[in-house]
């Protein structure tokens, strides 16, 4: 049976799990994901873990925060005066809203709301967490060359 090599196009199923065991992404109930190795489509650590493996094999990759969604950065938790915002509705804690952070449009999480200001978190919702990925190789697709 052929093993995975750089440049191969694979069909993969994967499960992404938080440290508390919560699954936040799982492709097993749908179609597998199509990925070409070496095309910057997946994390390079996933590619490395898949090399030399065969269809049907499952690998587990544990990524620390700096290799997954980044470290939690306290400076990205910001309180903004309402006068600086243009929102089309009244935001609620836990909601995602689009605002400008450090000069760039950003999807942020609302943490707190009062009459004068809104406190937001511009970190990725999974920042600071170690994430475990379980990846199964469904198939190596034939090369078109």
Report on the architecture of this protein:
By secondary structure, this protein is mainly beta. The chain has two domains: 9-65 and 129-141, Chitinase A, domain 3; 74-121, Thrombin, subunit H. It contains one helix and nine strands. The chain has one helix spanning 44-50; strands spanning 9-17, 23-26, 33-36, 58-63, 77-81, 96-101, 104-113, 117-121, 131-141. Strands 1, 2, 3, 4 and 9 form a five-stranded antiparallel β-sheet that branches. A four-stranded antiparallel β-sheet has the order 5-8-7-6, with no helix packed on it. Strand 7 (104-113) and strand 8 form a beta hairpin. The longest helix is centred in the N-terminal third of the chain and has 7 residues, at 44-50. The relative contact order is 0.28.
Order of helices and strands: EEEHEEEEEE
Distance between the termini: 19 Å
What is the overall silhouette?
Answer: elongated
Residue-averaged pLDDT: 93
Uncertain residue ranges:
none
Work out the helix count.
1
Short description:
By secondary structure, the chain is mainly beta.
Write a concise keyword list for the protein shown above.
mainly beta, 5% helix, elongated, Chitinase A, domain 3, 4-stranded antiparallel beta sheet, Thrombin, subunit H, 145 residues
